[in-house]
Amino acid sequence: MPGQNLSRDEARERAALLSVDGYEVSLDVRSAVGDAQGEGPRTFRSVTTIRFRCNEPGASSFADLIAPSVTAVSLNGRDLDPSEVFDGSRIALEDLAADNELVVDAQCAYSRTGEGLHRFVDPEDGEVYLYTQYEPADSRRVFANFEQPDLKAPFRFEVRAPEEWTVWSNGAGELADGVWRFAETKPISTYITCVVAGPYHYVTDSYERVLEDGTRLEIPLGAMCRKGLAPHFDADDVFLITKQGLDFFHDHFDYPYPFGKYDQAFVPEYNLGAMENPGMVTFREEYIFRGKVTRASYEGRANTILHEMAHMWFGDLVTMEWWDDLWLKESFADFMGAFANVGATRFKDAWITFANRRKAWAYRADQLPSTHPITADIRDLEDAKLNFDGITYAKGASVLKQLVAYVGEDAFMEGARRYFKRHAYGNTRLGDLLSVLEETSGRDMAAWARSWLQTAGVNSLTPQVLLSAEGRIDELAVVQEAAESHPELRPHRVAVGLYRRTGEGALERYARAEVDVDGPRTVVAELAGAEAPELVLVNDDDLTYCKTRFDETSLATLREHLGSLTDPLARALCWSALWNMTRDALLPARDFTALVLRFGGRESDIGVLQMLHAWAESALVHYVAPEGREAVGRLLGEGALRELRDAAPGGEQQLAWARFFATVASDEAELRLLRGLLEGTERIDGLDVDQELRWTFLEPLAAHGEADEGVLAAELARDDTASGKRHQVRCLAARPSAAVKAQAWAQVVESDALSNALVEATIAGFAQPSQRELVAPYAEKYFAAIERVWSERSIQIGMDVVRGLFPALRDSQDTLDATDAWLSAHEKAAPALRRLVLEARDDLARALRGQACDAAAATR
Predict the structure, then answer these.
(1) Distance CA 672, CA 190 (A)
(2) Residue 777: is the preceding peptide bond cis (ω within 30°)?
């Protein structure tokens, strides 16, 4: 990573000096097949021609390129010595003319880390697949360019590939004389250009629409995956969501899709969920389901498809000037994913998922020491890489959801329409969006932005209820609090709901009021005189972004009657609030797990149920006091098995409980049942143990020493695929052996031989909750290695190692002290690296506080 960074100041200086007229990029990837020749990385030829202008002739600048070697550089017909002008990441450009042409002929390296041009060899059939992934700044690993979002330009690609392959890019392509040539793009940023190449399985369809002016819009649609996944590829559903999304965005945005075709590629070993390359969207192939999954998985895929589609307007058509305003694309796309899911598809409960799952991500991120305003201070590319986080995505989307309520949906959408038309193919800052929203809503957006976009931290809202002698509400107030580190008290538009049990025992809302909460205490006058509630739910209907707290009566009601709460969104909000209380050491972890066991089986929303399972596992591993883990784990195992047996045969609740049971299974009888389900000697009516579920059952068996290398090799022979290989690698690393841990550590930390996907799998298997003592010695090794790893490996692998191998299972004050010692001794380490360590430290400190709360409850 040294020398590959780019600062905001450098980017601004270059943007003030240069403007780009166009790129021509020629790639020769025929070297992707066959055996590698010689030593060093496998490479491909990349020839780039850039035409650009300089408004200060005679000035100097630079182009970006990360490549093992450069064969030739020509500037305005003048040959430059590559050894003099190329330093491994930049090409120095001296004495620029008013109009310039730069030609760079380089040997670029195929990637095994998912950054740049990734090369994947399918172990199932030996086929080779390529795809690019660039955000925020990895297109320079494939072709020379000016790698910053505000130097947009049209691109024209051509690719030479093995003759049996097909190649795709942003524009429509055709093959002639052995070369794939693609139509010139509209002006776009470097990081959203794309090339996908290989023997992909490709399915086509089309979308048609008559526009308001009477013209017919036709968009060719394509969807692709590896040949090995073709039997599992439900392209019809992908196309259904795609067409529904295109209808929805055309209805709301009044700006026709601007990029011609719309291909979607599901690619292997992908680091992200997806990427919005215009005309050529890429997704992680795990969105193609090899086994039975719940409705929540299909909803999640639909959300991602719609998220990326929204980027065609928010991000691709109009792009932020610099990564400070990353929210201008990611927050909007995250909001639009749920908004369009509810408005256009079969997933009408997507806001419940948003409230329960996406906001949980935001709440965690907003309480870390690295939290930042939604409009962040992004000093350089390393900062940018780490800011694809819960603040930029989920908090930003939550705030936009509130903004829609604040200005009105009509004004919000009209603002978006004006924004697209005013800034099409350009770059924007915060003020550009706020100005159109002020026009359409008539509201002062500057004050709203100061409170919500330019400050960090999450507020807590707690009800205070005073009752009269007659048992009615004398006064109901909402108390707002903020953390000392981020004391901003924001204006909130909230709904306050009052709930009581009916004669049938259902817990239902009988009164509701909307109020503007502003300042430390706000009285809800509309609810004075109402009957005394059993539950007060602040932020009912999830109108704002806050942590919800409960008064004592409400908390007591939830402890006894949470499962009787009939409204699924209200129930999801209560679960989310209870989890936040657990993380904040206000609710003992054993109490939270008991609530999951008592009421989880009555949860109708499958996405909420699966989130509860994840939270219960996290509570057991991190927040239950050490002396109580065995007992709580036993209760979770027994409860999960009971719910598994009681669930409707063949239903998605049964599948969810089966997966959770595998996660918490630990005693001999539970492991024996898992083994029996794998071998067919045990059976649970309706439970189909498909290949994906087999691997789910095998991991706990491997972690408890019940599945050795031979068993895992036999399973791989049964599932000799790329997916099977990832599962096997994870299970191998999970085995309870010092030699196994040493080997896994060496493969990830001391070697770069593994691909990004296998690094991820190895890390996932390495630290098992049942093996705390076995991995404890690696705490010291972790702190000794991370700065070297950060400096030597790609930023993606560095992030995976620093996050994934932090010694969180050695949850003691000693580990906290060791973390503080490293931070004190490495004050000049890369800021992005320090941020990752600070985040891990905060999680550990939070876990220790939670354990203390849990231990105190056990002694009462």
Answers:
(1) 54
(2) no
Q: CA 698, CA 689: separation in Å to the nearest integer? A: 12
Q: Which of 286, 262, 282 is nearest to 130 (CA)?
A: 282
For 377, the token pair is 């201070």
- Residue 1 and residue 795 in contact, taking contact as beta carbons nearer than 8 Å: yes
Reading phi first (left if > 0) and then psi (alpha if -120 to 50, else beta), residue 254 is in left
Complete edge-to-edge strand list for the sheet that includes strand 179-182: 78-80, 69-75, 99-109, 43-54, 18-28, 155-160, 179-182, 173-176
Q: What is the pLDDT of residues 176-195, one digit of tens each?
A: 999 999 999 999 999 999 99
Q: Which residue has the tokens 């991120």?
A: 365
Give me the residue label for tokens 């969501």.
241
Amino acid present at 385? K
Rounded to an integer, what distance in angstroms lies between the CA atom of residue 277 and that of residue 129? 18
Q: Is 308 a catalytic residue?
A: yes
End-to-end CA distance of the chain, in Å? Answer: 53
Closest CA to 318 of 299, 333, 298: 333
Rounded to whole angstroms, the Cα distance separating 767 from 758 reads: 15
What does the block give as tokens for 846? 């939070």
* DSSP structural state of residue 108: E
Catalytic residue among 276, 285, 308, 760: 308
CB under 8 Å, gap of 24 or more: what pairs does 242-248 form?
A: 242/207, 242/305, 242/309, 243/205, 243/207, 244/340, 244/344, 244/345, 245/305, 245/306, 245/309, 245/340, 245/344, 245/345, 246/207, 246/209, 246/219, 246/309, 247/209, 247/344, 248/306, 248/340, 248/343, 248/344
Q: What distances in angstroms separate CA 161 from CA 69, 124, 226, one per listed residue?
A: 21, 22, 17
Q: What is the pTM of this model?
A: 0.96
Rounded to the nearest 10 degrees, the angle between the axes of helix 709-718 and helix 691-703 is 170
Query: Token digits for 782?
Result: 């972790």
Pairing label, strands 155-160, 18-28: parallel
| pLDDT tens digit sequence for 526-573 | 999 999 999 999 999 999 999 999 999 999 999 999 999 999 999 999
Which is higher by pLDDT, 378 or 207? 207
- CA 11/CA 427 separation, integer angstroms: 14
